[in-house]
Every structure is written in C-alpha cells, then in structure tokens.
C-alpha cells in the first residue's frame, strides 16, 4: 500500500517544518528590517489551505492508490521543472547584479582612487544585503502573536471537528454538519485578513508598497490557490510547502522568505494532515515518529548549511535549486513505490476503482 509511505512522508515533513521554523524564528529578511517569515502571507493562505486539506483527505478515501500515484508524478514533474526554470532565471539576475557591482567598483576606483567602497547588493530587489542570521529579538519580544493566535485557532478548530467526526456515523446528518462547520472557521479568518489587505490596515511587508491595498482579484486568486494547494496536499500527502514555495516565488517573494514562509505554513498544514490520516487508521505511528525525529535533525542541519552557502556566495537561487532537486527526487521515490504497488495489484486482479466514502471503516 502506498498510504503508509505517504503518511510517513507527512510525518517527516512535519518534523522538518518544525525544526526549520525553530531555526528561522529569529532570523530577519535579507534586505528589510522585518522577520524572514511573512506572517501576514501565511495568515492569508493558511485558513483556506487547511479547508482544502480536509477536502483532500476525504478524496483520498475515494481515490484508488494508482490514481494518487499518477497525480503525484504529474504534479511533481511540473513543479520541479517550474522551480528549476525559476532558479535559472534568478541565477541570471544575480549574475547581472554581480557584474554591475564589479563595474561600479572599477568606475569608482578610477574616479576617486580610493579603496574603501561599498558593493552593490546581492539581492534581487536592490536593497542592502543583511546577514540573515541577525536576530529579531527575544521570544517575549515577538510581534506577531495575533497572526500566530489566529492560525492556532483555525488549526485547533479543524482538529476538534475531525475528532468529533470520528464519533459520528459516516455520511450521517451530524457528519455533514461537522464537515460544513469547517467552512465558516476557515472563511472567517481568511476574510479578516483579506479585507485588511484590501483596505490597507494589513500589509505583506516584504512586498513593500505592493503588499497592501491588494486588488480583489488577487485575493480571490489567493483563496483559489490556497484551496487547490490544500486539496492536492491532503489528497497526495505531500505537504503544501511543495506547492506554496514555488507559488510564493512566482509572486516575487525573495527565495529566503518564500522558503521560510512556506515552511512555517507547512507546520500547520502537514501536522493537521497527519492527524486526519491518523484518525483514518493510516498512520504507522512508531515508524513515522522515528522518521519525524530524523527529519527534524536533518532539516535543522540542512537549513544551517544552505544559510551559510547563501551568505557565502550571495546567491539565494541556491534555495530554489535545492527545492527543485528535492521535488525531483521525491518524484522518483514515491512514483517508483506507487508504480510497483500498482503493478502488483494488476497481477493479483485486485479492484482498482473508486471507493465508497460512506462505507470506509475507520
């Protein structure tokens, strides 16, 4: 079965996300005096995304394993290719900035004959490059308690609803009422943030002047992308960071910020996915907990290494290439296991069609 592997992956993603969030907790934006995690962007996307996860997990009961495998392969191939092209585009921009920096230094040296100069920034938005290891402040000085509280409220509300569903008969009136209750919870928090961004009393700081007074079609698109990403994440068990990371890059978010923000959001989305799969009796607890622990350690070490490399070479595009490579390897690993399982079922003449949600035994 492909499901134990998928849920184990979700466990690893949860562990890795928590570890990475701890690492990024006090880091700053590479060019601005703000946190590296864009909390307002997470608050905009995450409520609808968690609603999508609930839809996706329900669909996972209906869809056959081979359908999930095919969707996984298609999604991962498309995402890895787009991330690779984005990385190449970012690399070229960084190269141009470095060349301009050298030319300016040579020009300044010719005019003034002095040797004490400031180089052009390595960042793509033209700001002054800062060490991303500069702390934001103490834990008690954290300024985003409201955003964190709202995200926690949505997470806990979805958790309570999922637990309540286990104690009701599938497809009963109570079951569907509980499912519908997830909509006002997610939609309410999303509308609060969306209205704030539209009217200007909320702001996505990393986008500067473009991060406030957002047009309605941008907010509608954000909700649709969040719902789609959550549904795909819940159905395929991939963690929404694989979808949200490339999406944030397409929005023009700096690679360091896109990675940190997507990972922070994935802490909520992957963990609620794990809970829902556990309630469906698809969670191999000891093995998944072991992988979660290993992934948390590996993610912390990896985050430290990539952060050093970005600061050393001045190329944030390295983060994008790592993302593309990780997605590509996941395509081979999960796709290979899924195809092998599918071939085995074909040989055994097992049923490979849609399942009945109402008859699923938890």
Automatic annotation (TrEMBL):
KW Transmembrane (keyword) present: yes
Location of this chain's protein in the cell: Membrane
A Pfam short name: TauE
Transmembrane segments: 6-27, 39-60, 66-85, 148-167, 173-195, 216-238, 258-280, 287-306, 318-339
Similarity field: Belongs to the 4-toluene sulfonate uptake permease (TSUP) (TC 2.A.102) family.
Gene source species: Lupinus albus
GO cellular component annotations of the record: Cul4A-RING E3 ubiquitin ligase complex; membrane
Membrane topology of this protein: Multi-pass membrane protein
Keywords: Membrane, Transmembrane, Transmembrane helix
Name this polypeptide is given: Putative transmembrane protein TauE
GO process terms (BP): protein ubiquitination
Keyword Metal-binding set for record: no
């Amino acid at each position: 079965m492909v499901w134990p592997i998928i849920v184990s992956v979700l466990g690893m993603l949860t562990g890795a996300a928590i570890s990475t969030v701890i690492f990024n907790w006090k880091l700053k934006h590479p060019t601005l005096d703000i946190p590296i995690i864009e909390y307002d962007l997470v608050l905009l996307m995450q409520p609808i995304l968690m609603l999508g996860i609930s839809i996706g997990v329900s669909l996972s009961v209906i869809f056959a394993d081979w359908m999930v495998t095919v969707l996984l392969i298609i999604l991962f191939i498309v995402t890895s290719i787009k991330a690779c092209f984005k990385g190449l585009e970012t690399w070229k921009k960084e190269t141009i900035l470095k060349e301009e920096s050298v030319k300016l230094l040579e020009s300044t040296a010719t005019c003034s004959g002095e040797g004490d100069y400031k180089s052009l920034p390595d960042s793509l938005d033209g700001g002054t490059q800062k060490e991303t290891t500069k702390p934001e402040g103490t834990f008690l000085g954290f300024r985003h308690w409201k955003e964190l509280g709202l995200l926690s409220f949505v997470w806990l509300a979805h958790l309570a609803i999922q637990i309540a569903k286990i104690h009701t008969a599938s497809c009963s009136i109570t079951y569907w009422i509980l499912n519908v209750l997830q909509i006002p919870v997610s939609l309410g928090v999303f509308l609060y943030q969306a209205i704030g961004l539209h009217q200007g009393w909320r702001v996505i700081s990393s986008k500067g002047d473009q991060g406030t007074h957002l047009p309605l079609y941008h907010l509608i698109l954000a909700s649709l992308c969040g719902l789609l990403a959550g549904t795909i994440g819940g159905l395929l068990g991939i963690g929404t960071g694989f979808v949200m990371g490339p999406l944030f890059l397409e929005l023009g978010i700096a690679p360091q910020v896109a990675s940190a923000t997507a990972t922070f959001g994935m802490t909520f989305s992957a963990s609620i996915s794990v809970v829902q799969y556990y309630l469906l009796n698809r969670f191999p607890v000891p093995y998944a907990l072991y992988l979660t622990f290993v992934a948390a350690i590996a993610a912390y070490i990896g985050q430290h290494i990539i952060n050093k490399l970005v600061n050393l070479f001045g190329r944030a595009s390295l983060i994008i290439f790592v993302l593309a490579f990780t997605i590509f390897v996941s395509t081979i690993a999960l796709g290979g296991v899924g195809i092998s399982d599918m071939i085995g079922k074909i040989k055994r003449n097992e049923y490979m069609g849609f399942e009945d949600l109402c008859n699923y035994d938890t």
